[in-house]
Design goal:
The complex is a heterodimer of chains A (about 150) and B (about 650).
Chain A (H helix, E strand, L loop, with lengths): L2 H30 L1 E4 L1 H5 L9 E7 L5 E2 L5 E7 L4 E7 L11 E8 L5 E8 L8 H4 L5 H4 L4
Parallel strand pairs in A: 1-2, 5-7
Antiparallel strand pairs in A: 2-4, 2-6, 3-4, 4-5, 6-7
Chain B lengths: L1 H27 L4 H30 L6 H6 L6 H7 L4 H22 L5 H25 L23 H30 L4 H32 L10 H26 L3 H23 L13 H26 L13 H31 L4 E2 L2 H21 L11 H6 L1 H17 L5 H18 L12 H26 L1 E7 L4 E4 L2 E12 L4 E10 L5 E4 L2 E5 L8 E5 L1 E5 L2 E12 L5 E12 L2 H21 L2 H17 L2
Antiparallel strand pairs in B: 2-11, 3-4, 4-5, 5-6, 5-7, 7-8, 9-10, 10-11
Helix pairs in contact in B: 1-2, 1-6, 2-4, 2-5, 2-6, 5-6, 5-7, 6-7, 6-11, 7-8, 7-10, 8-9, 8-18, 9-10, 9-12, 10-11, 12-13, 13-16, 15-16, 16-17, 17-18
The chains are: A alpha+beta (about 150), B alpha+beta (about 650).
Subcellular location (chain A): Cell membrane; Membrane
Protein name (chain A): Cytochrome c-type biogenesis protein CcmE
Keywords (chain A): Cell membrane, Cytochrome c-type biogenesis, Heme, Iron, Membrane, Metal-binding, Signal-anchor, Transmembrane, Transmembrane helix
Chain lengths: ~150, ~650
């Protein structure tokens, strides 16, 4: 085989590799990317049951309820416009509290409860997910009083 | 006074960078020779002054000088001394000064020790380094002054984020920064060589130790960061595909590709344009990472409080440097003479495939990291998590490992592959044995971990193949380094795959005296007691883990409460307890108290993991870094230099 052919094969390999990577990346992104949803969007029916997503909202006052097994909690996430019940089995992060912001990864169950695999809480005054920064100021105060 | 002195030093250092830039640029435009003699001393002085300024900042933190805004916002007089020192770089301004210090010191080291390059290429390299420094000086001085004074000093500071109050902070950021910024030297070398058109083996050999050096630090920094996140966050994971982790992985991938392609250029004088391109990409990716972390675009413990002005500033800097270097590359690439030819089946060919795969993984990780940002700009909020990365990077990484098996066994230039086939059977046998054992006895395992462990078996044996039938005493250091690093990849891969395949987890609310079983361990929860640390109070759980063999060990996970200081909110952290065994680690986290029927807590949340072979991951990372270090010692001819010096000294001693 001539050197020229070798170069051509390498170039073709490279092009095929890049094209393959592009297809791989695009299809994986389409399947695996999770949308960030607010309770209002979920109330508007934007979230399909079983689809992986990320939910952001404030923990409504007085809504945290602990189940008998001691490791499962239920609470209501709200954005001031709508609210969604959330269920989580695990150790909630430091600073997870009522009337403070949280972001949960998980999916909607058929009964309209959001089942979280992981919960992130607002860490401190200097750490706030930008996605939560979009929420209206003082959402906590607008949260339904129970 | 200290703060003012530090600021003055920074201005002088910036002026020196400016001087190097102008003198170097004039010289390169066929200017007078005496200008060029300014560049080396100015580069050295700039590096030293910046380092002194950084030392002064640390001194301010040590003295808890609350009249300095940065200290007041990030430190507290009650903090243990080690965190006062480390707190100097646990924030935006301080870490930016660290960045500049490393940028300046690496320029100084090049100016002092680089003797192999042609003089004009060296001047061009130092000029490029000065241009980089100047931009970051402007960023620091105009938008992120670390020495800013407060009009009124508060009585005490706001303290450091408790998650950062760990020995990891003393080690992980500086190491990673040396790696990130060390790549700037390769970037400057590439720019310098493009300017003077000296792209060849000499340039590659000069650049090689720098690439190896920064890659060692990147490897160590990422390994340390992974272990830190593993035990500090209490989530039990060692890699989260968090954007901030990704932006450290991306330069690492670029560095890995670069150190393999630079080997081809140095040894065979091929792949010249590609090596230059990768050198540009390496530091560009470091800058992209810094921009992403500091612009406030992403969510992470690593994102500092930032205003959009800083983000824009960084974006402009980045566009200037990356755009400038790429434009220069586009203009000069045509004049880079064609390199030496090689056959597809050859060492070079395998390294080309290695580079192709590494850059593809790099591109896919970058895509996943940037996609949410782009989507957000278009009005959709999206997060890209582990499922995406595992799906795209996992299979490619496994293919890469198989290429790694073949590469070192192929000859340069042209090979018929006979030697390769004669040395493969033991490796293939090892892989097949692992595969059969797992299929027969492993139970239900995901396809990726299954393949991961089998490939690890192949790589572990094959990585040693270059040493067979060789006089081990005569084997050059870089070969030992390569063998060790490739073996380290196998160790890390086995750890990752085994951990995800055989992990056992228990999550319970346990009352004192209760016993929980996880894997082969019986873990008895003995209760909790309050303890007090230097600047926190904690609840310390006590667990007794008993192995089937009857040995028992005590684990003490803590749940710490840091009081809010000077108006900040209080913070809690979980300190996990780890029990390292030959077969893996037992990981215990103490969660919240669970109130009983009468309202007082009678049970505590406990999360227990048995993580088989998990410590192999970091051991592998360490081996990779150690291998690269051996190669560096060999390549930089440090031993040779040392021997010559010793011989000279001995001669002097015996001289009459």
């Amino acid at each position: 085989m001539k050197a020229k052919h070798q170069r051509l094969i390498l170039a073709l390999l490279a092009v095929a590799g890049i094209a393959g990577a592009g297809v791989l990346g695009a299809s994986a992104l389409r399947d695996e990317a999770a949308y960030f949803r607010t309770p209002a969007e979920i109330a508007a029916g934007k979230a399909a049951t079983g689809e992986a997503m990320r939910l952001g909202g404030m923990v409504a006052q007085g809504s945290i309820e602990r189940l008998g097994d001691g490791v499962t909690i239920r609470f209501v996430a709200t954005d001031g416009k709508a609210s969604v019940p959330v269920e989580f089995t695990g150790i909630v992060p430091d600073l997870f509290a009522e009337e403070s912001g949280m972001v949960a990864d998980g999916r909607m169950r058929a009964d309209g409860t959001f089942v979280a695999d992981r919960i992130l809480a607002k860490h401190d005054e200097r750490y706030m997910p930008p996605q939560m920064g979009d929420m209206p100021k003082g959402v906590a105060k607008m949260a339904p009083k129970t | 006074m200290i703060a003012e002195l530090g600021l003055a030093l920074l201005w002088i250092a910036a002026a020196l960078a400016c001087l190097s830039l102008i003198a170097g640029a004039l010289f390169l435009r066929a200017g007078p020779k005496d200008l060029a003699s300014l560049v080396r001393p100015a580069s050295v002085a700039q590096g030293v002054l910046t380092a002194v300024a950084f030392a002064l900042l640390i001194a301010l933190f040590v003295r808890s000088d609350m009249s300095v805004e940065l200290v007041a916002r990030n430190s507290n007089s009650l903090k243990p001394m080690i965190f006062k020192v480390a707190g100097a770089w646990g924030n935006h301004e301080g870490s930016m000064l660290l960045w500049l210090t490393i940028l300046g010191l690496s320029g100084a080291l090049v100016a002092l020790f680089e003797k192999r390059l042609r003089e004009d290429t060296l001047i061009a390299t130092l000029t490029a380094q000065a241009a980089l420094s100047l931009g970051f000086f402007a960023f620091l001085l105009f938008s992120s002054n670390p020495f800013n004074r407060l009009p009124v000093a508060p009585p005490d500071g706001q303290g450091l984020n408790p998650l950062l109050q760990d020995i990891g902070l003393a080690f992980h950021p500086p190491t990673l920064y040396v790696g990130y910024v060390g790549l700037s030297v390769a970037f400057s070398f590439a720019v310098g060589a493009l300017v003077t058109r000296e792209i060849g083996p000499a340039f590659a050999r000069a650049m090689r130790p720098w690439v190896l050096g920064s890659w060692i630090f990147l490897t160590l920094g990422i390994t340390a960061g992974s272990y830190w996140a593993y035990y500090e966050l209490g989530w039990g994971g060692w890699w989260f595909w968090d954007p901030v982790e990704n932006v450290s992985l991306i330069p690492w991938l670029a560095g890995a590709a670069l150190l393999h392609s630079v080997a081809v250029t140095a040894t065979r004088n091929a792949l010249r344009a590609w090596t230059v391109m990768l050198a540009v990409i390496g530091f560009s990716m470091s800058m992209v990472g810094t921009f992403i972390v500091r612009s406030g675009l992403l969510t992470s413990v690593h994102s500092f409080a930032v205003d959009p002005e800083r983000g824009t500033f960084l974006l402009v800097l980045m566009a200037l440097y990356i755009g400038g270097a790429l434009t220069l590359f586009a203009i000069r690439a045509g004049t880079v003479a064609e390199g030496k030819k090689f056959a597809l089946v050859s060492r070079e060919g395998s390294l080309v495939i290695n580079n192709l795969l590494l850059t593809t993984i790099l591109a896919l990780v970058l895509l996943g990291t940037l996609y949410p940002i782009v989507a957000e700009a278009m009005g959709e909020k999206i997060s890209v998590g582990p499922p995406y990365y595992n799906r795209v990077a996992g299979p490619l990484a496994l293919i890469l490992c198989l290429v790694m098996v073949a590469g070192p066994l192929l000859a340069w230039r042209k090979d018929d592959g006979r030697k390769l086939w004669s040395r493969l059977p033991p490796a293939i046998f090892a892989g097949a044995a692992v595969l059969f054992a797992l299929v027969l006895f492993g139970g239900k395992i995901g396809i990726l971990p299954l393949l991961g462990m089998s490939v690890a078996g192949v790589v572990a044996v094959a990585s040693l193949a270059p040493l067979w039938n060789r006089n081990l005493r005569r084997t050059p250091l870089p070969t030992w380094g390569m063998v060790l690093a490739h073996f380290g990849v196998a160790v890390a891969l086995a750890g990752m795959a085994a951990e995800s395949a055989f992990i056992k987890e228990r999550l319970v609310a346990a009352a004192p005296g209760e016993t929980v079983r996880v894997a082969d361990f019986a873990v008895r929860f003995d209760g909790v007691r309050p303890v007090a640390g230097p600047n926190y109070t904690a609840l310390e759980g006590s667990l007794t883990a008993t192995t089937p063999g009857g040995a028992s060990f005590v684990l003490k996970p803590e749940s710490r409460m840091f009081p809010g200081l000077m108006g900040t909110a209080p913070t809690e952290t979980n300190e996990a307890a780890l029990l390292t065994r030959p077969g893996g680690q037992l990981y215990a986290v103490l969660g919240q108290p669970v109130p009983g029927t009468n309202g007082t807590p009678d049970r505590y949340q406990l999360r227990l993991w048995w993580k088989p072979l998990v410590w192999w991951i970091w051991l592998g990372g360490g081996l990779i870094a150690l291998g690269a270090a051996l190669a560096l010692i060999g390549r930089a001819q440090l031993l040779a230099i040392w021997r010559v010096r010793r011989a000279r000294k001995a001669e002097e001693r015996f001289a009459p």
